[in-house]
Amino acid sequence: MKDFPSMFGFSVSHTTRQPRHLERNGVHYHFTERSWMESAIQEGKFLESADVHGNLYGTSIAAVESVANDGKRCILDIDVQGARAVKKSALDAAFIFIAPPSLEQLEGRLRGRGTENEEQIQKRLKNAKAELECGRDSSIFNHYLINDDLDECYSELKRLLGLDLVDANEVQGANSNQAWLDSIHGHSAALVGGNVFVIGGDIDPNVEPALIIIDTNCIVGGAPGQTTRLRLVLHKHRSELPNGNHFVKTSKENGHL
Ligand SMILES: Nc1ncnc2c1ncn2[C@@H]1O[C@H](COP(=O)(O)OP(=O)(O)OP(=O)(O)O)[C@@H](O)[C@H]1O
Ligand SMILES: Nc1nc2c(ncn2[C@@H]2O[C@H](COP(=O)(O)O)[C@@H](O)[C@H]2O)c(=O)[nH]1
C-alpha cells in the first residue's frame, strides 16, 4: 500500500484483543469491547467475523466501504475462517494464503516479537498448524505464498497481482489529474452512448476546452456520497481525442473508454 497508495487501501478490522506496543486505534485495528462487537455483528454491521486465538476479530462493512469509496482496492488481512466467509459473500476478491517457511520459524518469529505469553504462543502455533492445512485448499485460495525472505515474498506478491508491470510513479502521477479536475469551473455535459461527456470550462480562455468522459457502465451505489467505481478519462484538449474533435464512442479498453 505504501508503494501503490492510490490503488490499495487497508480494511481496518475490529478486534477485542489488547493493543500491542505502537499499535494505534483506528490505524492497525479498531480495538473494541466484546459486548459492543457482538451487538454490532448481530445488527449485520460485519462482513465477516471470527474467534481467532481466543479473541474476536471482524471486518466491518464500513471498513470495506471506506476503502471502496476512495476508489481503491481493499486489502483484508484475515484468518482462514474469515477467508471462507468472504468467499461466500458477493465480493469479487483474490485470496492469497501467506505461510511461514516452517512452524519452527514461525515460533522463532513469535517469540522474537515478544508480545505473547507462553500459553498464547502455544495457542497460535496450534492454530497455525490447522491454518497451514487449509492454505493449500484451492477452493478458497487462489495463491499460496511462502514468506521466507520478506523482500522476495513481496516481489512474488506483486508478480501475482500484475503489479510488477505497473510503474508506481506513473500511478502516483495519475493523482495529479485530481488537482486539474478540481480547477475546472464552468462546464456543460451531454449523455452520449451511455457515457457522460463533460466539457469544461474556464481554466484558461486561451486553451481549448477540456473534455472529461465519465464511464457510467461501472458505477456502483447511488446513495448520496456512496457512488463508487466511477471511471474518468481526462482529455485536456479535445484534439487529444482518438477521433479528432468528434464525440465518438471508442471501444472499451481496460474498463476505460
Ligand atoms: N519474512 C519475515 N522475516 C522475518 N520476520 C517476519 C517475516 N514476516 C513476518 N515476520 C514477523 O513474524 C512475526 C509474526 O508475523 P505474523 O504476521 O505471522 O503474525 P500474526 O499475524 O500474529 O500471525 P497469525 O496470522 O498466524 O495469527 C511478526 O513479528 C512479524 O514481524
Ligand atoms: N477473520 C478475521 N481475522 C482477522 C481479522 N483481522 C485480523 N485477523 C487475523 O487474526 C490473526 C491474528 O492477528 P494479530 O494481529 O492478533 O496477530 C491473524 O491471522 C490475522 O490475519 C479480521 O477482521 N477477521
Describe the fold and architecture.
This protein has helices at residues 34-42, 61-68, 80-88, 103-113, 118-135, 150-160, 168-174, 176-182; strands spanning 8-10, 14-15, 30-31, 46-52, 55-60, 73-75, 96-99, 143-146, 187-192, 195-200, 210-215, 231-235. With 257 residues, it is an alpha/beta fold. Strands 3-2-5-4 form a 4-stranded mixed β-sheet. Strands 9-10-11-12 form a 4-stranded antiparallel β-sheet, with no helix packed on it. The protein has a two-stranded parallel ribbon with strand order 1-6. β4 and β5 form a beta hairpin. α4 runs antiparallel to α5 (118-135). The longest helix is centred in the middle third of the chain and has 18 residues, at 118-135. The chain starts with 7 loop residues before the first strand and ends in a 22-residue tail after the last strand. The structure holds adenosine-5'-triphosphate and ligand LQESDW3C. This is Guanylate kinase 1. Keywords: ATP-binding, Chloroplast, Kinase, Nucleotide-binding, Plastid, Transferase.
What's the helix and strand layout?
Elements: E1 8-10, E2 14-15, E3 30-31, H1 34-42, E4 46-52, E5 55-60, H2 61-68, E6 73-75, H3 80-88, E7 96-99, H4 103-113, H5 118-135, E8 143-146, H6 150-160, H7 168-174, H8 176-182, E9 187-192, E10 195-200, E11 210-215, E12 231-235
Parallel strand pairs: 1-6, 2-3, 7-8
Antiparallel strand pairs: 2-5, 4-5, 9-10, 10-11, 11-12
The chain binds adenosine-5'-triphosphate and ligand LQESDW3C.
